[in-house]
Design a protein that fits this description.
Elements lengths: L4 E5 L14 H10 L4 E7 L3 H15 L8 E10 L2 E6 L10 H10 L3 E4 L16 H7 L4 E6 L5 H13 L3 E5 L11 E6 L4 H7 L4 E4 L4 H16 L1
Parallel strand pairs: 1-2, 2-3, 5-6, 6-7
Antiparallel strand pairs: 1-8, 3-4, 4-5, 8-9
Helix pairs in contact: 1-2
Bound molecules: zinc ion.
The site of zinc ion (ZN) has 4 residues, from loops.
Length: 231
Amino acid sequence: MERDVLRYDLHMHSKYSKDSFNEPKLMILQAVRMGLNGIAVTDHGSIKGGLKACEELRKLKSRGRVPDDFEVVAGEEVMTDAGEVLAYYIQDEIPKVPLEEALDRIKEQNGIASIAHPYSRGVIRKAFTADIEKVLKKHKLDALEGFNARIVLDGGNRKAQQLATKHNLAMTAGSDAHFLSEIGRGYVEFKELPGGLREAVKKKATIPKGSNRLAFFYRSITLANVLRKKI
Ligand SMILES: [Zn+2]
């Protein structure tokens, strides 16, 4: 299959988040069905879903159910005092810590750090509240989320893209799926490079894409997940 342009959905949740029931194996199969080349599993405060998905990917590949070049990135949506940060390619879970510590910990693990939905808040999510210029002086931030399919008003994504451009940051994008049917509603597109996604982020070559048409619907029904999990 032609792999000139790759599509990765870089924000989604599994059953290891308190507001989702998604099974990692089914997430991978759904992503393949949607024509994606890779996903990042980014549970709230947990790396378990990401690690589990990597394990499931190996099994699925050995049975020939998933293309050999499909990639799963283990990640986490880390809660900080200044909003949420998406951490990619990490090995150790990061608890809720101040923003600057979260960025340091991601860097220590040779991970990629991206600010999640900088202009969107909700019942669970937080908008970004730190002064980005100050943060960038001392800490390494690779990207910010230029498209999140759960942002109800288009302005939130547009402003995020402007912010990334202003500070010369790469952009990540994702569905923020809490249900399987959302996977692929947001993604980055990039030309295949030898260094894969890492190189694309480094070169600021990832293009955010997707549709937020059902954002309000999906965010509303996610609240039911939170309640069901508490019972
Ligand atoms: Zn999320």
